[in-house]
Amino acid sequence: MITLKINGLDVSVEQGTTLLEAAKFLGFPIPTLCHMEGLSPYGACRLCVVEIGEGPKAKLVSSCTYPAEEDLRVRTASQRVLRARKMILELLLASCPQSKIIQDLASAHGIRQQRFKQEHEDCILCGLCVRMCAEQMVAKAIGFRNRGQNRSIGTPFDVKSDVCRLCGGCMYVCPACQLRCTYNEPEKAICGGCANLTPPCVDKEQFNDMMCYMDPCVACEIKKD
Question: What is the pLDDT of residue 224?
């Protein structure tokens, strides 16, 4: 067994357990987009970042791919972590502004303004569809093509796949193909219709970490009133 601290609490987990699994075991919420039970961890969206280590050597890592280590210190909701998640969500929102999932995540993290140019590329390259096709449907009909800004998902050489069974699994897991939000103009990029309250504690200088992990936070509800 491996013993580590998450948000100041001791937890013992088995060898090979990821930080995301360990945090969820304690009930600490960590947002994810490219992660799904039953599929291999990929770490593409980076939404699940957590802070490990202490002092100037502390760094951000993706919790879905980082294995638990002995005596590791983990913080799941520090100011640095929340700032990173907000930046990531703004970038994702620019790529796929009509994704209901991304809209809800942005609202839940207090994002109310779109700062980046909307590209309307739809695909955010989370890799869920590729892993679903390969690992659950055992077809491998689609995959990643090219690199960098030319990276995309499709069939080899854009030829219709003879192994695709038209099961729809790729569309079922795709954040861009699921429910759509009608707000896609820059000034209305985040509708906030499904917004959750953000923790006011991390906005105050005296607190560097979220003070409670209830969903919704009792203090946030009181502040709202």
Answer: 47
